[in-house]
Amino acid sequence: MRKIFIAGNWKMHKTVGEAVELARELVTALTEEKKKIMIAPPFTALNTVKEVLAESNSNILLGAQNMGPEEEGAHTGEISVKMLKDVGVSVVILGHSERRHIYNEPDDLINRKVKLALSKGLEVILCVGETLSERESGIAENVVENQLIRGIEGIAEKQLSGLTIAYEPVWAIGTGKTATPEDADKMHGFIRGLIEKKYSKKLSENITIQYGGSVKPGNVKDLMAKDNIDGALVGGASLKAETFIPIVRYDKL
Ligand code: PGA
Fold first, then answer.
1. Is the overall model pTM greater than 0.85, yes or no?
2. Is there a catalytic annotation at residue 96?
3. 18 lies in which domain range?
4. Catalytic residue check, 70
5. What is the per-residue pLDDT across 151-170, written as a single tens digit (0 to 9) for each?
């Protein structure tokens, strides 16, 4: 059985004070929730948000939005895997489309980060997804295949128990446009097939694949009803308790 995994990516939002306020609201509302939940505040708020989660023994996981590809050294501006673990991070988002497209992160760099994170015991959410022009020219599956296969190149099956894949069509991120549940399910099925071909049927059946791109309380239920959709990576709607809580509790809507 795949575990349902709902994650919030706060991106470049929230001061420490604002982050604490939101974390407190989520902790209070989601104490009884059995699903796997993660919130990824900005780096500056990780430490304090961890304290909020720890104070109340919350099972909400702390996530980071990125990580440097090296263990330590002269890498101005980067944050290492050890630093993330030190403040209580257990999951890191890698290969987000904003890292790929705004900051030009290539697949081999993302692959180095994925390998490093998994080898040090961090879980990884690896994001993949096509742009609008790639979808319109009929190459969406090729793009997703390349990003996925290059992203996990050289990683043994036994290490992939710590991997979640997030399918996030770039044209649906922050735009209000969502892939239809049918289109998303189809791509998720395609991704599962790639995992089966490269590794095994067992891994393909067990791996969690999240959908991301304008997930909101109004569309989460239909997306989650699909066989191959095991969770959501939520941006904009994760910034407010009133929208993130119903997304997590979509089965009660
Ligand atoms: P969005 O972002 O929910 O605001 O579309 C999703 C993401 O970038 O992970």
1. yes
2. yes
3. 5-252
4. no
5. 999 999 999 999 999 999 99
